[in-house]
Amino acid sequence: MAAPIDNQKSPIANVPRHVAIIMDGNGRWAQQRGLPRIKGHEQGAESVRAVLRAARQAGVKYLTLYAFSTENWIRPKDEVEGLMNLLAGFMDHYEGDLLKNKIRLRVMGQIERLPQKVQKKLTKLMEKSAKDYEYTLIVALSYGSRLEIADAARAIARKAAKGELDPETVNEETVAQHLYLPDVPDPELMIRTSGELRLSNFMLWQLSYAELYVTDVFWPDFREREFFQALEAFNRRGRRYGGIVTQ
Ligand code: FPP
Fold first, then answer.
1. Whose CA is nearest to atom 12 of ligand 1?
2. Of 4, 113, 152, 158, whose Cβ has the fewest other Cβ atoms within 10 Å?
3. What pLDDT is stored for residue 239 in this prediction?
4. Structural domain total, the chain
5. Three-class SS of residue 131?
6. Alpha carbon 191 to chain centroid, angstroms
7. Is the pLDDT of residue 25 over 80?
8. Domain interval for residue 89
């Protein structure tokens, strides 16, 4: 049995304000058990709930989850539909919990490509949860980082063409200000489950200085304890930003 979380015993001194996660391995988790892939996604949704709780308990203010990439549209129709239904079900089921716990829901990606039913639920919950919140859950849906950067470049070019912006003044800050969620601070920690050592077109700009933590654990098995282990590993790292270690 998993040991209970005791954050009192092992306090995390330096809690990242923003943690981003590539939730990988749902399919392999299911395959190992001879189950259909969607069962892995269902258990993965349970991990979302567990990690959201752990993040809040630790004091993480922003949690970004890579739920569906622009590349994921090429998966079998059944699986895409199953994932969309799971997302809709998650919102129905946890709306009360999200609001009670002051968690704001935001979406990063091409929301307009999602099924109408999912778009409606997301929009409604995003509005409701934006009124009174302490934590932010960002779900990356139909998201691709190169697309996000290209969208930012196009927006900047449009402004320059209209004379609203001098091209000579374009700098890193300008680009950052034209990404999908410009007000959200960059993640300090990026977790990837199921062992792959790749960024998979996820937040390439925002993760420039992030600590990367990769575990072999499949996402459906990644729960509170695994999340705290990642925070502890983050605490053992010396962050330099190109300078020298000061801690
Ligand atoms: C990666 O596993 C996982 C996904 C593409 C989907 C993640 C979605 C959920 C956990 C559903 C619920 C989400 C929310 C936000 C409520 P994979 O299918 O790529 O696994 P594999 O690499 O083993 O095939």
1. 45
2. 4
3. 67
4. 1
5. coil
6. 9
7. yes
8. 18-146+186-235
